[in-house]
């Protein structure tokens, strides 16, 4: 259902939709192919900016821990937002398909096609309230054995076909 709060999902492909969960954590979505559709980014693998990400994450930690492994900077949807300083005020309704916005953008990785990895398809996390049909659809994707994955689905991983070179 379209509301003022989810308006970015009804905007052109590539629009940021940032929302709060549990009244305190941000989650980052990108509008996708059809009105109302989007992709939740649950995690990312940091490749640079480690000091900045660690600073943002450590500032939010309640455990008093002063150091994190880089693979754990963004290993969850809200951790990703904390590490990247993504907030609704800063990025909601920003078009990240436009590299001219100077805040955040998407771009092709020329090395991507040369990498060999396997993609795990599994049910999404935390949507049981949507009913069995939607809760069980394999609409979550991640790279097998990536250390930055927020939560692994061992059943889906075991069901993968062997990698063929």
TrEMBL record:
Keyword set includes Hydrolase: yes
Gene source species: Aromia moschata
EC category name: hydrolase
Reactions catalysed, as given in the entry: Hydrolysis of alkylated DNA, releasing 3-methyladenine, 3-methylguanine, 7-methylguanine and 7-methyladenine
Record's protein name: DNA-3-methyladenine glycosylase II
One of the GO biological process terms: base-excision repair
Family per record: Belongs to the DNA glycosylase MPG family.
Its EC number(s): 3.2.2.21
DNA damage as UniProt keyword: yes
Keywords tagged on the record: DNA damage, DNA repair, Hydrolase
Function as written in the Swiss-Prot or TrEMBL entry: Hydrolysis of the deoxyribose N-glycosidic bond to excise 3-methyladenine, and 7-methylguanine from the damaged DNA polymer formed by alkylation lesions.
Coiled coil: none
GO molecular function, one term: alkylbase DNA N-glycosylase activity
Residues passing through the membrane, by range: none
InterPro entries assigned to the protein according to its UniProt record, in alphabetical order: Formyl_transferase-like_C_sf (IPR011034), MPG (IPR003180), MPG_sf (IPR036995)
């Amino acid at each position: 259902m379209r509301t003022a709060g989810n308006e970015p999902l009804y905007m052109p492909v590539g629009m940021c939709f940032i929302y709060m969960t549990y009244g305190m954590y941000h989650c980052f979505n990108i509008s996708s192919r059809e009105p109302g559709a989007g992709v939740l980014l649950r995690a990312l693998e940091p490749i640079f900016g480690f000091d900045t990400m660690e600073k943002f994450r450590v500032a939010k930690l309640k455990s008093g821990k002063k150091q994190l492994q880089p693979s754990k900077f963004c290993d969850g949807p809200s951790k990703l937002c904390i590490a990247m300083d993504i907030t609704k005020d800063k990025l909601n309704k920003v078009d990240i398909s436009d590299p001219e916005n100077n805040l955040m953008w998407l771009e092709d990785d020329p090395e991507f096609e040369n990498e060999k990895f396997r993609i795990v398809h599994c049910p999404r996390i935390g949507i049981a309230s949507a009913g069995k049909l939607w809760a069980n659809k394999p609409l979550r994707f991640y790279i097998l054995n990536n250390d930055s994955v927020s939560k692994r689905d061992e059943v889906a991983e075991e069901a993968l076909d062997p990698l063929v070179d």
